[in-house]
Structures are given as structure tokens and as C-alpha cells.
Amino acid sequence: MNFVTNREAALRPACALRPAAEMTMWFTVLAGLVVLSFSYVKAFCPHLPADCVYILRSLGLGFRLLKYRKRKPIYSVLDCFLDAVKRHPAKTFLHFEGREYSYEEVDRQSNKVARALQAEARLKEGDTVALFLPNEPGFVWTWLGLAKLGCPAALLNFNIRSKSLLHCFSCCGAKVIITCTELQDAVEEILPTLREQGISVYLMSDKCGVQGINPLSEKISKASDQPLSRDLRANIHIRTTALYIYTSGTTGLPKAAVVTHERVWAASFLQAASGVTSEDVFYINLPLYHSAGFLIGLCGSIERGNTVVLRRKFSASQFWDDCRKNNVTVMQYIGETLRYLCNMPKKDNEKNHKVRIAIGNGLRTDVWTEFLNRFGDIKIRELYAATEGNIGFINYTSKIGAVGRVNFVHRFLFPYTLIKFDIEKEEPVRNSQGLCIEASTGETGLLVGKITHRSPFVGYAGNKQQTEKKRLSDVLVKGDLYFNTGDLLRFDKDNFVYFQDRVGDTFRWKGENVATSEVADILTMAHCIQEANVYGVKVEGHEGRIGMAAVTLREGEDFDCSDSYRHVVNYLPAYARPRFIRVQPCLEMTGTFKMKKVKLVEEGFNPSLITDPLFFLDLEKKKYVPLTEEIYKAITLKEIKL
Ligand SMILES: *[C@@H]1O[C@H](CO)[C@@H](O)[C@H](O)[C@H]1NC(C)=O
Ligand SMILES: *[C@@H]1O[C@H](CO)[C@@H](O)[C@H](O)[C@H]1NC(C)=O
């Protein structure tokens, strides 16, 4: 049976169960559900058994979280790691570039780091430390070392530079930053400002000639590897900040989401909930600075006590060889990575591997089908949730395309709803009393989750304005408060939940909403197109924005004007067709493989400003034609009708 959970939904019931009355109610509900699930009901409610398994598993994990919540002193993921070290010290915890590190080795190394930092940086409980490190074992033991000192870690994205880096660093209030030689240049660039602010910079290296950057490696190797006292983190409780994780927007500067210990637990349960065991080998190829790689991947593996194969970065060409070599059984995916795997040339041994589960989000149905056809029977655990959000779903039935199900227990405990949304104004539709309007079944709406004690929204560090922007009040009644997910979803009549788009990834043209991801799926079906990034651009004198796509071509292919035209016209309604195509050598991505759109939108479609080849969908010639200055002029003069 397909089973389930989701990061918040499944795990949240945990924090929920409080007084005895509530418990009793719960058991009644539960008992009712179990009884109902007997097979004759199956005929009428085919999804009920799956719903029940989901609820039961969720409750199991929920009770565990409840236990952890009450435990004094706190039982954190670090304590879970220390228990794993006791249980199986010699077991491999990390595999990295051909080297293995046992649980015990990682533990000892983290003791050394903690001691070196304690002596050098005079760190004490509660001091935030920014980690600016790539995916490597040092990331893991430095974080563990900080946790042993009771210090929250801010996980900086190692791709960001200068202003952005400074912004991320400042908003978490850290006084210390730790980096490595590979990223030293980026830190040197902002060093004057850091020094002005009295920030200490530590480098994972034996020496450094730059004033103001302190080498740390020698101090670490000389430090004792003996365990640190628990007293160092005596004041930490389940709702203190464990981490700051930056949400990678496709727009604007990143925001630091506050992640409490409770939230770390909840997210780490996702592996357990997906059926991952302690025998599994978990492949992390996503950046550790995001929740997917760090919370679901790393913390999840600690919770399970399994082995992690860590990679510096995702590589489509190395992927399956890596999996075979390391006996990987569980993989993670996000956004486009499965598409990249499907775009690789076919090989005979593609199904020869041990991967049995894939956990992630953002999978499109076309890719999913091809992925299974090519790489064999892998269970896909698609989930919907946001780092900072207070609501989530997981795909626990075999409904293709659905990210989850509306489940009344879940909804009762964590009230959420879909509200009508105005794509043009990018705000919820409100009625004459100023309240939002719930979307009807089958209609796309904005997902909002009620902010309660059970499902809190902690917000972003040092960013009141952004935090406020995510809070929505007067939703269903005056004075209520909801978390605005910024995601557009749809519930169908059988209660399946479909992810439609992110606000901003949908644009409006001729009064119709265009979901960019759907258009991209069609474009990539054209044989010459490898990847497509779809967005809307403004045209003088027109309402809304017209469709445009930046594409990359398959190796050895030219842009096929007729074939692409045929695909677009056959599969897309007129308003959704990209009228402009921009051919690029590669598409710009964020750290989590989301495509960057803002710059493209601003650059528009003016051939005298853009050097990439541009094409225009010509309805008369029935193909795409090169976008010349003449055509451009004719469009702006409205001689060509759009
Ligand atoms: C993978 O599994 C095979 C067979 O079970 C074993 O011989 C091999 O040593 C394993 N490789 C690693 C890296 O654990
Ligand atoms: C949900 O999971 C099932 C079974 O693993 C799969 O068939 C389906 O495609 C998944 N849906 C999505 C959106 O991934």
C-alpha cells in the first residue's frame, strides 16, 4: 500500500495532542476510521485504507514528537545522533568522495571542532554562527559541534556573493562566520564590512595570509576529542531556534526562516514516514544549506541511523554510477533533477541499481512516467511543504499528479483552505466585507494555513516586513490569522490535492491565467528543446503579459521553427502559447534548480537589446520566424495583432 506522510501534516498532529479530552476525541476518531477501513468500504471509498494508514503512521510519529516535546532536558536530533554513536560506533555515517567516516569518527571530529571554537571564538549557548561551507563532511561535523555548544547555525547558500551574502549574514544576527579555502574569495570581498561590524571569520585551513581571517584547522586537530558536557546547552528547549535556513526565492533577496528543534524533528521524520529504514543508504546530492538536503536528508538519516552518501553537487552523468558504487537505496530529488536524469542519453544498465525510494517535490507527471520507464520500479514520495510554512501534504495514494489528499482529521487539526486569488493584482480577492472568498471544488486558489499554537508560523529572522507579508488576516472571519503559502493549489471532487503554481509563476494574458510550468512541459516535448523557462512579458498598450520562453536546445539540434510551432499550437490554447522564444546556451538557476525569471522578464523581447537568437510565433506563416527589428517595430506599433 502506498503510504504517506508529509513534513508538517503528518508530523504536526504531534504538537497537537494536549489535554486528555483532545486525546479521547482522537482515539474515537481513530477507532472509527479503523473500523470503517474494512474491506467492504473499499468499494465505496477506495482511498480510505490509504487514508487510515496515513493517519495511523502520522499518529505514531506524532506521539513520538509529543514525547520529545515533553522531555526535559530536551531530546534533540543531536541527542539522537549521540545515541546512534553509542549503538553502532563503527557503522559508516558518511561516504564522501571515496572515503568513509564512521558515526564515531564524525562524533569525535565534532567534539574537536566544538572545543576549538569554544576556545577561539568564545562561543556560548545561543550565539548564532553562520556556516558558509560547501557540501562536505566538514559541514556535518561543524554543525554537530555547534549544536554541542548550544549554538544555532545559519546555513548560508554557498552560491551567493557580495550584497546578497552580506544580507543573509546580517539578518540572522551571527557574530561568527566559518568558511573554507574554496570560498575564501567570496568572504574576502565582504571582509571590510564584516570587520567593521566586529564579525569573526574562521577558515577551515592550516594557514591564511589575510588579516582578519583566522585559520582554524590546526586548532581543531590539536583539540581534544572528548565529549562535551550537556550543561553547555542546558537552556535549549524544543522551541528554541536550531537553525536558520534561507528560502531561495526566484525573486528578491533570500529570507532566513527560523527553524526550531521541534521543526527539525518534524522534517526529519519524513524519511521514517516514507518507509526508509536504518539499513538504507541515503544519497544527498542537494545542497545542505536547504531544508530538503539538511532536514529531510541529513537529519532524517540521523533519525534513522542509516548511511549517507554525500555529494558536492548534483551530477546527472555521475548519478547512477554513484548509486551503484555506493549501494544507494534512497534518493532525493527536487525541481528539475529528475528531468535532468531523463535527459541523459540512454544506457543498457539503467535499471541496474538498488534505489527503491525517491523523496522530493516538484515532479511533473510526464517526467515521472519517463523516469519509471527508464530507471525501474522506484517508489516516488512527492511532498508539498515549505521550510517556513505551517501546512503540508504528501502524496500517499497512487494518484498520478496529486501531491496529497484533503483529509478531515488533518484539516480539523490544522485548518487550511484555498481562497480565490487575483493573478493580475497578485492578491486575494475580497468581498464587500473585506473577507476572502473560498475557492470552490476544482477551482485553483491560494493555499492558506491557519496560524495556531499547533501550527505556528515563526517567521523570518530580522525581517518583520517579509514576515508580515506572509501573514494574512481577515480571511474567513474578522481578526483571524493565516499563513500565506504563496502557492496555488486545486482540490478535486475526490479530495485530491494538485499543486498548480507558485504565485508569480502564473501570469495573465487575455483574461486567462497561464501556468508557466504547464507551458514548459509542452515545449520540452518538441524534439529540439531540452529545457524551457516560461514567463510573461509586458507589451506596450496591452493588459497583462504575453507568453515568452527561454529555451536550451538538445545537443546537435537547431531551433526547429515548424516542429516547435506544431507542438505549441496543437497542445496549448492560444492565450498560453509563447509568442516569443529566446534560445540560450544554458538557463540560469537558483541553488535548488528553480529557474530564474526576473531578469528575463525585465529584458523582454527587444532584438536590439538581446543578443541571444529570438523567434516570434507567426500565425500566418504557421511557424516560428526570427524576430527581426521590423517585426518588433510592427508589434510596438500594433501593426501585428497579438
Ligand atoms: C555494495 O554491496 C556489495 C554487495 O552487497 C558489497 O560487496 C559492496 O562492498 C558494497 N559497497 C559499498 C560501498 O558498501
Ligand atoms: C504519487 O505517488 C504515486 C505512487 O508512488 C505515483 O504513482 C504518483 O505519480 C505520485 N504523484 C506525484 C505527483 O508524484
Automatic annotation (TrEMBL):
InterPro entries: AMP-bd_C (IPR025110), AMP-bd_C_sf (IPR045851), AMP-binding_CS (IPR020845), AMP-dep_synth/lig_dom (IPR000873), ANL_N_sf (IPR042099). Residues 518-594 form the AMP-binding enzyme C-terminal domain. Residues 83-405 form the AMP-dependent synthetase/ligase domain. Keywords: Cell membrane, Fatty acid metabolism, Ligase, Lipid metabolism, Lipid transport, Membrane, Nucleotide-binding, Transmembrane, Transmembrane helix, Transport. It is found in: Cell membrane. It is an enzyme of class 6 (ligase). GO terms for cellular component: endoplasmic reticulum membrane; plasma membrane. It is a multi-pass membrane protein. Belongs to the ATP-dependent AMP-binding enzyme family. This is long-chain-fatty-acid--CoA ligase. It comes from Oryzias melastigma.
